[in-house]
Design brief:
Elements lengths: L12 H7 L5 E3 L3 H14 L2 H15 L4 H18 L9 H10 L5 E3 L6 H4 L15 H14 L21 H9 L9 H5 L3 H14 L2 E8 L5 E8 H18 L4 E3 L9 E3 L3 H13 L7 H10 L5 H15 L3 H5 L4 H13 L18 H27 L2
Helix pairs in contact: 1-4, 1-5, 2-3, 2-5, 3-4, 7-11, 10-11, 13-14, 14-17
């Protein structure tokens, strides 16, 4: 994570004043997600917004809510010290403090949840099955309710405040219009359990598009109202929503994840291993500026949630299309056996000549195996061509 440069020095004595006694912070958010949002705050927040935005980020992203209060106390003490004759900081003290935090990874410890009895005595099988009494649909509705109370859906599920009148929303009608599914709202966990899978997954994607993270929160004492939220941001809301929903999908062992790049962002895609998913996402991200790129299109086709075997064979054909014109080039760059294997696979499984040819049912299980073989060769070709281009440009 690149931290934006500031008009100040993180070794400034005022920075030390407000950070020297800080504890080792324990994040409840993933570290990259926190660093991403904190850096966005550094680059977009006005001086007036810096304190409330940073305080709410700390309150939400750290396991101990006291971190936010400790931060505010340090900023207040720094301001008071400046008033009593200490030199003024070279930049806004919150900017300096937040930048110092981001540049010291030792103070951003990943949260380690406690390991309780059942897990400790699971015979080494840490990946315990989720409770079958609670489906993904039920847990998803519980998550929606939690995020709603945290202010994440201001347009469709706004927080009710007696001091702020809001136009009533017919949520059932809005859901029907957008998803073409009949959902009676409010939706209880028990009712969610009875919904068709297609409807549940449509809701997962719909609420991704409606998620907005509030960057500021003000405590409202009247009638136990709680926090009133403001300064909503769609990009941040989507990022947090996808992280939380994907964790839930993983817990329920669903072979799906919400995509995060390009046309896949906020849409359910088939999931492989964590490492494979990261590799595919990086491949798509690298090609995001090329909308006609057929390799990125092939990846999206192959891991789309509703991809059938015809779609997957079409994706393989696109990958092969990238390789076939380069066969002579690759012959001088890789082993003959590896290259022949790729082209023989394409011939034997009717990928090369026509995806419409008969493809026997017993061979369908090889589609994923072929996909990773073809993609590996495409990645090798890309690397070789990039190396050659760099060599040609060098003096």
């Amino acid at each position: 994570m690149v931290v934006p440069a500031l008009n100040g020095n993180v070794s400034d004595p005022t920075t030390r004043l407000i950070s020297v006694n800080d504890p080792v912070y324990s994040l409840s958010w993933p570290r990259p997600l926190f660093a991403w949002e904190a850096s966005r705050i550094l680059t977009t927040a006005s001086d007036a917004d810096l304190l409330p935005w940073t305080k709410h980020l700390l309150r939400e992203a750290f396991e101990d809510e006291g971190v936010a209060e400790a931060f505010e106390a340090k900023i207040s003490s720094q301001t008071a010290a400046t008033t009593w004759g200490m030199p003024a900081p070279t930049a806004h003290p919150v900017r300096l403090w937040l930048q110092a935090l981001l540049t010291d990874e030792a103070r951003l410890a990943a949260y380690q949840p406690p390991v309780y009895f059942a897990e400790r005595h699971s015979g080494g099988h840490i990946d315990i099955e989720p409770d079958s009494r609670f489906t993904f649909a039920e847990d998803f509705i519980e998550l929606l309710n939690t995020m709603s109370t945290e202010g994440y859906f201001p347009k469709i599920l706004p927080k009710v405040c007696e001091d702020r009148w809001t136009e009533p929303i017919d949520v059932s009608r809005e859901l029907r219009r957008a998803t073409k599914q009949v959902v009676e709202w409010p939706l209880t966990s028990a009712a969610a359990k009875m919904l068709p899978e297609m409807t549940v997954y449509s809701l997962v994607e719909y609420f991704n598009d409606r998620a907005q993270r509030p960057r500021a929160a003000e405590w409202h004492n009247w009638n136990d109202c709680g926090y009133d939220y403001s300064d909503f941001n769609r990009e941040s809301g989507g990022a947090v929503y996808r992280w939380r929903v994907n964790a839930l999908l993983s817990y329920h062992k669903a072979p799906l994840r919400l995509g995060s790049v390009g046309a896949e962002r906020g849409r359910l895609i088939h999931s492989f291993s964590r490492e494979q998913d990261a590799l595919l996402t990086q491949e798509v991200e690298n090609r995001v500026g090329r909308p006609a790129d057929e390799v990125a299109h092939a990846i999206r086709m192959f891991r789309a949630r509703d991809a059938n075997n015809i779609d997957k064979r079409a994706a393989l054909a696109l990958l092969y299309k990238r390789l076939e014109p380069k066969r002579k080039y690759l012959e001088g760059k890789t082993t003959k056996g590896d290259l022949e294997d790729i082209f023989n696979i394409a011939n034997r499984y009717h990928i090369r000549h026509s995806v419409g040819k008969q493809f026997s049912e017993e061979r369908e299980e090889y589609l994923e195996w072929m996909f990773w073989n073809f993609l590996s060769m495409v990645r090798l070709l890309d690397a070789l061509e990039a190396k050659q281009t760099a060599a040609e440009k060098s003096p």
